[in-house]
Amino acid sequence: MRDINEHTPGEDLIIKTAVRLMVPFAQLFGLYVIVHGHYSPGGGFQGGVILGAAFIMLALAFDMKTSQQYMTIRVNTVFNNLGAAIFVGVGALSAIFGGLFLDYSALDKLIPMGSVEWRSFGIFLVEVGVGFTVMSIMVLLYWNLSSGGAMDEGL
Amino acid sequence: MTILSILATILILLGLFFFFAGTVGILRLPDFYTRLHAAGKCDSLAAMLMICGIAIYNLQPFSFAALLISLKLFLVAAFVFIASPTATHAITEAALVLGVKPWKRTEKKRP
Question: What H or E segment, with its residue span, contains residue A37?
Fold first, then answer.
């Protein structure tokens, strides 16, 4: 039997294998929740949390370096600014084209495909923005909290 | 009663039995590890049996919409079956590393 004291938590074959098996499906489910957000339970926030949880699972089972291999700090920053930019951009575009802020039906003048379709599609665009931001902020929160702000080495 | 109904009833009753056994185990067993053992059983096996029973019951007036929902439920069962024992394993290992001593027969039941 192995000595218990030589064993560090988080370095375990069972947990690593299970996480390696589940992370792709968790990410696929997160995308599904985001995309189905406007006509079934779900949405940008929930899907973003699931996507972020997939990365947090990687960081928990392996270490922070491994999760930063898949999503670097630079990519993380790009994602959380891109999400906010998509949200504000869609809102401001619809205000520019003659509606109120986030009144998607005004975007019909930009790409004509019917104001009803634009209401549905505009919600989808905003949800994608929310999903990006929530995913990267979740991962960033975990990195910062588990490493005391240094983001180099943690759990 | 169709065959699918009977099968679903049997699966849900089996799941209920395992949930009952797990609850009794959590309440009666003496220390952390044994209680976690009971909780792990009812989390993985009983939840999987219940979800499979519900998925089979859902198929009754057969349609492709119902089949889609049942397939999603079977996927949920498969992932519960992978994730729940892993979570139990991780909690047990963390307790072992932190130095929670296993219960011995001469001790009293721990609160």
Answer: none
